[in-house]
Amino acid sequence: MTKDLTETFTGFLYDQGDRIGLLKQVLATLGNPDTDFSIIHVCGTNGKGSTSLMIAAILQQMGYRVGLFTSPFIGDVTNSVQVNQKPISQRRLTTYFDSLKQTMATATFNQQQLSEFEALFVAAMMAFSDEKVDYVVLECGLGGELDATNAVKTTMYSIFTKIGMDHVGILGDTIEQIATTKSKIIRPHNTTISAPNQRPEALQIIKKEAEQKAANFFDANDLTITFEPKASTVAYQLGQNQGQFTFRLQGAYQLENVRTVVRWLLSFAGDRPTIELDRLLSQSLGKLNIPGRFELISDQPRLILDGAHNVDAITAFVQTVNQQFQSQQKLIITGFLADKDYADNIKLLSQIPNAAFRLTTPDNEQRQLDPVILQKLLATQTGVTYPVIADPIQALKAAVKEAASQPDTVIFVVGSFYLLNPIRTFILENRSDFHVPNTTASL
User: Fold this and answer.
1) Does the record bear Protease in its keywords (predicted)?
2) What value does the mean pLDDT take over residues 367-381?
3) Using omega within 30 degrees of 0 as the cis cutoff, is the peptide bond preceding 72 cis?
4) Neighbours of 370 (CB within 10 A)
5) Structure pTM?
6) How far apart are CA 220 and CA 237, in angstroms?
7) What tens digit of pLDDT does each residue of 175-228 get?
């Protein structure tokens, strides 16, 4: 988040006092803007962003006006707050922040502080209300029960992507504890959907919470899909519901995400029998590009960005690379935050064949990991001491130069979004030096 937009907001207050109570009071003071639209709340560990973007794209294709709130943002902070896939302007976001600062300065709040994420969430609710959207797809931040997004009064859907081990010590120390924290976003009588292949202990907790809240519960495992890569088509079936649509998103994990999305759509479209589902899915998802999720940002040189930063996501990344680029030479630029499970991530990445690494530093001074630590870990795993290039842009330039002499080489940038952001921005600002596909969003 740019400094000029957040100069009076602090960094992290997730577990300090009753944050949800405070945010509810702030929203009430502002006239409860979060009640002016229906909310589809997306929570989980991996796949939240992709799932949210797909749902938003489908709703927009149906003719609805759709707000989308996602994090972490790719590119500029304004990309976290979108209406019909268009980011809010910096000017408008500044206006909302100024209004929020004035609210917090009143006697009611006595100069209490909001974190950057909390302020951005509230500003998003104000923007979506002013924009008179029909639906908001609301992606959780790191949590569930104590996440800022859980301050909304009610939701239409609670959707859970795959839950894994991340933010350990904040959300909990086990899958059961993390799933319990996340399950608390379920609201009475809403519709709750769980991703396929959910860990059994997490699925049981979500189902139990849904039952206690008298929420309708659906498991995306009930829906079967098959993918035909040559034709880029997905066939699906759930009971009598079956069909086929175009789907070109890369990454094996996207098939899990789209399975969740189709299960949501079958629920959402249940009382709308005139919807042509296959046409709708093809038109909304057939050309969708998701920034930072196995994103082909340049095809000359061939360069792919992926924000995988925990064990489940890295496992899926490795699987996809090995499926699609088994025999090709690979240059992998990577860097992680110090509070991630970087040792296990590096162990997984080292299993990619025909790969060489360039180790660099994410753009986050407080949480960045010294790439020399990754260098030593990789040396232990592979017997090779790979170069450290501390500046991400210099690491990119070095990899591009190296790949130029080996035409079959694919460059991957994987790890923290704080690593992807500066590299993606640099590539889009220097399009003349890269061949950026027309489908790439300029967020």
Assistant:
1) no
2) 94
3) yes
4) 14
5) 0.88
6) 11
7) 999 999 999 999 999 999 999 999 999 999 999 999 999 999 999 999 999 999
State the chain's maximal CA–CA distance in angstroms: 65
- Give the start-end residues of each E strand in 336-395: 355-359
Query: Which of 339, 333, 414, 331 is closest to 369 using CA atoms?
Result: 339
Amino acid sitting at position 425: T
Domains of the chain: 3-285 (3.40.1190.10), 295-433 (3.90.190.20)
Cα–Cα distance between 372 and 394 in angstroms, integer?
A: 16
Spacing of C-alpha 238 from chain mean position: 27
Residue range 82-121, pLDDT digits in tens = 999 999 999 999 999 999 999 999 999 987 889 999 999 9
Do the beta carbons of residue 81 and residue 172 sit within 8 Å? no
Three state DSSP letters for 22-69: HHHHHHHHCCCHHHCCEEEEEECCECHHHHHHHHHHHHHHCCCCEEEE
Task: Report the C-alpha gap between 312 and 298 in whole angstroms.
Answer: 26
Amino acid at 88: I
The alpha carbon dihedral of 414, 417, 419, 420 has a sign of positive
**Total count of residues recorded for the chain:** 443
C-alpha distances out from residue 194 to 30, 46, 172, 220, Å: 33, 13, 20, 6
